[in-house]
UniProtKB/TrEMBL annotation:
The chain crosses the membrane at residues 12-36, 48-68, 80-98, 110-136, 148-168. This is Uncharacterized protein. The keyword Transmembrane applies. Keywords: Membrane, Transmembrane, Transmembrane helix. It comes from the Bacteria. It comes from Desulfatibacillum aliphaticivorans.
Protein backbone atom coordinates (compact mmCIF):
# COMPACT_ATOMS: atom_id res chain seq x y z
CA UNK A 1 0.00 0.00 0.00
CA UNK A 2 1.43 3.40 -0.97
CA UNK A 3 1.94 6.25 1.47
CA UNK A 4 -0.82 8.27 -0.23
CA UNK A 5 -3.27 5.38 0.19
CA UNK A 6 -2.34 5.00 3.86
CA UNK A 7 -2.88 8.72 4.46
CA UNK A 8 -6.22 8.55 2.64
CA UNK A 9 -7.31 5.60 4.79
CA UNK A 10 -6.11 7.38 7.92
CA UNK A 11 -8.10 10.45 6.94
CA UNK A 12 -11.21 8.36 6.32
CA UNK A 13 -10.92 6.25 9.47
CA UNK A 14 -10.16 9.26 11.68
CA UNK A 15 -13.34 10.97 10.46
CA UNK A 16 -15.41 7.79 10.82
CA UNK A 17 -14.19 7.38 14.42
CA UNK A 18 -15.00 11.06 15.06
CA UNK A 19 -18.53 10.63 13.66
CA UNK A 20 -19.15 7.63 15.93
CA UNK A 21 -17.86 9.44 19.02
CA UNK A 22 -19.73 12.62 18.12
CA UNK A 23 -22.95 10.66 17.51
CA UNK A 24 -22.62 8.96 20.89
CA UNK A 25 -21.97 12.34 22.52
CA UNK A 26 -25.05 13.84 20.86
CA UNK A 27 -27.24 10.90 21.88
CA UNK A 28 -26.08 11.16 25.51
CA UNK A 29 -26.60 14.93 25.51
CA UNK A 30 -30.12 14.58 24.10
CA UNK A 31 -30.99 11.86 26.61
CA UNK A 32 -29.61 14.03 29.40
CA UNK A 33 -31.57 17.14 28.40
CA UNK A 34 -34.86 15.61 27.23
CA UNK A 35 -38.01 16.43 29.16
CA UNK A 36 -38.68 12.92 30.48
CA UNK A 37 -41.80 13.90 32.37
CA UNK A 38 -43.56 14.41 29.03
CA UNK A 39 -42.80 10.90 27.77
CA UNK A 40 -42.37 8.57 30.71
CA UNK A 41 -43.01 8.21 34.43
CA UNK A 42 -41.18 10.71 36.61
CA UNK A 43 -39.32 7.87 38.31
CA UNK A 44 -37.32 7.34 35.09
CA UNK A 45 -35.98 10.89 34.98
CA UNK A 46 -33.22 10.64 37.58
CA UNK A 47 -31.78 7.23 36.60
CA UNK A 48 -31.81 7.98 32.88
CA UNK A 49 -30.26 11.42 33.23
CA UNK A 50 -27.64 10.06 35.64
CA UNK A 51 -26.58 7.30 33.23
CA UNK A 52 -26.68 9.67 30.24
CA UNK A 53 -24.60 12.25 32.13
CA UNK A 54 -21.97 9.72 33.16
CA UNK A 55 -21.77 8.38 29.59
CA UNK A 56 -21.61 11.93 28.19
CA UNK A 57 -18.66 12.88 30.34
CA UNK A 58 -16.97 9.53 29.66
CA UNK A 59 -17.29 10.18 25.92
CA UNK A 60 -15.89 13.69 26.34
CA UNK A 61 -12.99 12.46 28.48
CA UNK A 62 -12.12 9.56 26.17
CA UNK A 63 -12.89 10.96 22.69
CA UNK A 64 -9.22 11.63 21.86
CA UNK A 65 -8.25 8.20 23.23
CA UNK A 66 -10.62 6.61 20.71
CA UNK A 67 -10.17 8.80 17.64
CA UNK A 68 -6.39 9.35 17.77
CA UNK A 69 -5.22 5.71 17.71
CA UNK A 70 -7.71 4.71 15.01
CA UNK A 71 -6.52 7.45 12.67
CA UNK A 72 -2.84 7.08 13.66
CA UNK A 73 -2.86 3.33 13.03
CA UNK A 74 -4.16 3.96 9.50
CA UNK A 75 -1.54 6.67 8.76
CA UNK A 76 -3.42 9.95 9.25
CA UNK A 77 -1.29 13.08 9.62
CA UNK A 78 -0.57 14.65 13.01
CA UNK A 79 -2.50 17.91 12.47
CA UNK A 80 -5.55 15.98 11.25
CA UNK A 81 -5.42 13.69 14.28
CA UNK A 82 -5.25 16.63 16.67
CA UNK A 83 -8.13 18.41 14.92
CA UNK A 84 -10.39 15.38 14.77
CA UNK A 85 -9.54 14.34 18.33
CA UNK A 86 -10.56 17.73 19.74
CA UNK A 87 -13.52 18.35 17.45
CA UNK A 88 -15.98 16.43 19.65
CA UNK A 89 -14.94 18.56 22.63
CA UNK A 90 -15.29 21.76 20.61
CA UNK A 91 -18.74 20.77 19.37
CA UNK A 92 -19.87 19.96 22.92
CA UNK A 93 -18.49 23.26 24.20
CA UNK A 94 -20.18 25.22 21.39
CA UNK A 95 -23.44 23.40 22.20
CA UNK A 96 -23.09 24.41 25.86
CA UNK A 97 -22.24 28.02 24.97
CA UNK A 98 -25.32 28.17 22.74
CA UNK A 99 -27.45 26.69 25.53
CA UNK A 100 -26.41 29.33 28.07
CA UNK A 101 -27.03 32.24 25.65
CA UNK A 102 -30.63 31.76 26.74
CA UNK A 103 -29.89 33.52 30.01
CA UNK A 104 -26.45 35.15 29.60
CA UNK A 105 -25.12 37.76 27.19
CA UNK A 106 -23.02 36.53 24.27
CA UNK A 107 -19.79 37.64 25.97
CA UNK A 108 -20.67 35.88 29.21
CA UNK A 109 -21.67 32.77 27.28
CA UNK A 110 -18.37 32.70 25.40
CA UNK A 111 -16.51 33.10 28.69
CA UNK A 112 -18.56 30.21 30.09
CA UNK A 113 -17.08 28.11 27.28
CA UNK A 114 -13.74 28.31 29.09
CA UNK A 115 -15.09 26.49 32.15
CA UNK A 116 -13.04 23.93 34.03
CA UNK A 117 -14.86 20.91 32.57
CA UNK A 118 -13.94 21.91 29.01
CA UNK A 119 -10.36 22.77 29.96
CA UNK A 120 -10.01 19.51 31.89
CA UNK A 121 -11.28 17.54 28.89
CA UNK A 122 -8.77 19.27 26.61
CA UNK A 123 -5.91 18.61 29.04
CA UNK A 124 -6.96 14.96 29.41
CA UNK A 125 -7.09 14.73 25.61
CA UNK A 126 -3.56 16.12 25.33
CA UNK A 127 -2.35 13.48 27.77
CA UNK A 128 -4.21 10.70 25.97
CA UNK A 129 -2.78 11.68 22.60
CA UNK A 130 0.72 11.89 24.11
CA UNK A 131 0.38 8.39 25.52
CA UNK A 132 -0.89 6.99 22.22
CA UNK A 133 1.84 8.74 20.22
CA UNK A 134 4.49 7.33 22.58
CA UNK A 135 2.94 3.88 22.16
CA UNK A 136 2.99 4.07 18.36
CA UNK A 137 6.54 5.45 18.27
CA UNK A 138 7.73 2.67 20.57
CA UNK A 139 5.92 0.05 18.49
CA UNK A 140 7.12 1.40 15.12
CA UNK A 141 10.68 2.10 16.27
CA UNK A 142 12.90 2.50 13.23
CA UNK A 143 16.36 3.97 12.76
CA UNK A 144 16.26 7.77 12.78
CA UNK A 145 12.61 7.94 13.88
CA UNK A 146 11.57 10.59 16.39
CA UNK A 147 12.10 9.61 20.01
CA UNK A 148 9.66 9.15 22.85
CA UNK A 149 10.63 12.23 24.84
CA UNK A 150 8.18 14.63 23.13
CA UNK A 151 5.03 12.53 23.54
CA UNK A 152 5.93 11.45 27.08
CA UNK A 153 6.56 15.06 28.15
CA UNK A 154 3.32 16.11 26.47
CA UNK A 155 1.37 13.44 28.37
CA UNK A 156 3.00 14.39 31.68
CA UNK A 157 2.45 18.13 31.13
CA UNK A 158 -1.22 17.49 30.32
CA UNK A 159 -1.64 15.43 33.48
CA UNK A 160 0.13 18.04 35.62
CA UNK A 161 -2.07 20.83 34.27
CA UNK A 162 -5.16 18.64 34.68
CA UNK A 163 -4.19 18.19 38.33
CA UNK A 164 -3.86 21.96 38.79
CA UNK A 165 -7.24 22.68 37.16
CA UNK A 166 -9.34 19.93 38.72
CA UNK A 167 -7.67 18.49 41.81
CA UNK A 168 -5.29 21.02 43.35
CA UNK A 169 -7.17 22.44 46.31
CA UNK A 170 -10.20 20.51 45.00
CA UNK A 171 -10.33 22.78 41.93
CA UNK A 172 -11.04 25.87 44.03
CA UNK A 173 -7.84 27.65 43.02
CA UNK A 174 -8.63 27.45 39.32
CA UNK A 175 -12.26 28.36 39.95
CA UNK A 176 -11.13 31.45 41.89
CA UNK A 177 -9.03 32.55 38.91
CA UNK A 178 -11.95 31.81 36.58
CA UNK A 179 -14.35 33.85 38.75
CA UNK A 180 -11.85 36.71 39.07
CA UNK A 181 -11.63 36.85 35.29
CA UNK A 182 -15.42 36.91 35.07
CA UNK A 183 -15.66 39.78 37.56
CA UNK A 184 -12.96 41.75 35.73
CA UNK A 185 -14.65 41.34 32.34
CA UNK A 186 -18.33 41.63 33.28
Amino acid sequence: MSNAQENGNGFKFAWIAFLWVCGLMAACKILYNIAWYEFAPAAMHKPVTFVAGVLLFAVLALAPAVVYPIGRKRGASGPLLILVSFLTLLIWDAWEVYRVTEFFTLGESLYYGLNSVFIAAVLAGISEMGVWEAYFRKKDKTEGAPGLMGPVLTALAGLALLYVVMFWNLGQSFFYIYQSGYRALF
